[in-house]
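TASK: fixed-backbone design
INPUT:
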């Protein structure tokens, strides 16, 4: 009994003095291990008479419990101290300069979007956004394309099937908004015109860059691509304002003064009159280079987007009085103007995620476009 008490005290002192997990494990084996003295003492209980056992057992069991508790507590303390020490050793000094050059690069589409926003901000345009999952009212109806309008079919729209209506024998239904409008992926950025007019009223001066979707794929068409919408609503707005705005934008964007635009009569249900915007270019060493008059020798015209005066019916759909307010709108393909500025020839490579392509055509994250430093500056 005295022997057990003194051995327990010695074991508890050794546990308290242990300075490493290895020393603690040695003490565990010495006491509670298979051949440890506590385990051996417990085994002797089997050979005792019931009276002897009643007398001896409590001391051995309480020695085992005290040693086991002390081992657990010391183990937790040693582990916590080891973690503290590791955390102190592994601190990172964030004030040190980066050891390696930045690995990622900014995608040309993101760079061109920043360039657009910079140039249009200088012309007093704010950036507006709208949802990519749209409804057919904003994407078509309010833009003067009712349900039977042939232009709806031309947009190769992705609709959302309504799985809740589908059964094995039934055709899959169309997902609808609570107002009964069909849900779709927007086919152009023009629905942002409607949202901006309904939200802000007039006057308005916005651009709306973003992703759009059409079931379409070849070297100059991808199922997801980017457009930038422009919308100006004010009093006394006419086509001259549209032409000046586009010319000023393209001169700043391509960083050339000799940009010549041709406005070609066209048709969009949401603009009247409608014009397509062509720019003069020449071929230099197999590369299209913007600039000059498209009818000049060695030159041609290239289409960059659609535009026109906002149709009076669209103003009415968006709650504005066409007798009081007029406006112009345009929609440009961002990927196409990026191809033209930075010399890529296949649009599909934009979305392959190939690091070699990104390393070649991408931009440094530190190369922020600014008008003073040049919107197309490469680091
Ligand atoms: C439109 O989408 C009209 N919403 C533009 C508009 C806005 C007109 C405001 C008038 C007023 P369009 O379908 O032509 O128009 O597309 C405009 C531009 O998007 C095209 O000139 C082209 O540059 C680009 N584009 C069209 N389809 C694709 C595609 N699949 N892949 C890449 N770019 C495309």
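OUTPUT:
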């Amino acid at each position: 009994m005295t022997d057990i008490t003194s051995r327990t005290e010695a074991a508890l002192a050794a546990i308290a003095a242990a300075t490493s997990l290895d020393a603690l494990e040695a003490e565990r084996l010495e006491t509670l291990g298979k051949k440890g003295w506590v385990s051996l003492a417990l085994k002797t209980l089997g050979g005792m008479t019931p009276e002897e056992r009643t007398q001896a057992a409590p001391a051995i069991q309480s020695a085992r419990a005290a040693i086991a508790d002390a081992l657990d507590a010391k183990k937790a303390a040693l582990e916590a101290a080891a973690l503290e020490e590791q955390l102190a050793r592994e601190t990172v000094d964030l004030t040190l300069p980066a050891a390696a050059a930045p690995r990622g690069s900014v995608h040309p589409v993101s760079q061109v979007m920043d360039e657009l926003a910079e140039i249009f901000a200088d012309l007093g345009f704010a950036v507006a956004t709208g949802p990519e999952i749209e409804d057919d009212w904003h994407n078509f109806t309010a833009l003067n394309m009712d349900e039977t309008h042939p232009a709806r079919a031309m947009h190769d729209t992705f609709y959302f099937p309504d799985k809740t209506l589908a059964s094995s024998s039934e055709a899959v239904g169309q997902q609808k908004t609570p107002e009964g409008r069909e849900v779709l992926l927007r086919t152009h950025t023009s629905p942002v015109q409607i949202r901006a007019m309904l939200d802000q009223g007039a006057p308005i001066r916005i651009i709306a860059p973003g992703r759009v979707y059409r079931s379409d794929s070849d070297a100059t068409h991808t199922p997801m691509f980017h457009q930038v919408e422009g919308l100006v609503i004010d009093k006394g707005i006419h086509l001259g304002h549209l032409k000046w705005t586009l010319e000023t934008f393209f001169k700043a964007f391509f960083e050339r003064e000799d940009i010549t635009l041709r406005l070609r009569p066209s048709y969009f249900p949401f603009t009247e009159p409608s014009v397509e915007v062509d720019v003069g270019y020449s071929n230099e060493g197999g590369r299209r280079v913007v600039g000059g008059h498209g009818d000049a020798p060695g030159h041609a015209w290239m289409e960059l987007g659609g535009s026109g005066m906002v149709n009076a019916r669209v103003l009415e759909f968006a709650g504005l009085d066409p007798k009081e307010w007029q406006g112009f709108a345009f929609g440009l393909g961002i990927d196409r103007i990026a191809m033209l500025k930075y010399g890529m020839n296949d649009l599909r490579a934009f979305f392959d995620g190939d690091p070699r392509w990104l390393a070649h055509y991408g931009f440094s994250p530190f190369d922020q476009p600014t008008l003073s430093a040049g919107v197309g500056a490469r680091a």
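COMMENT: The mean pLDDT is 89.
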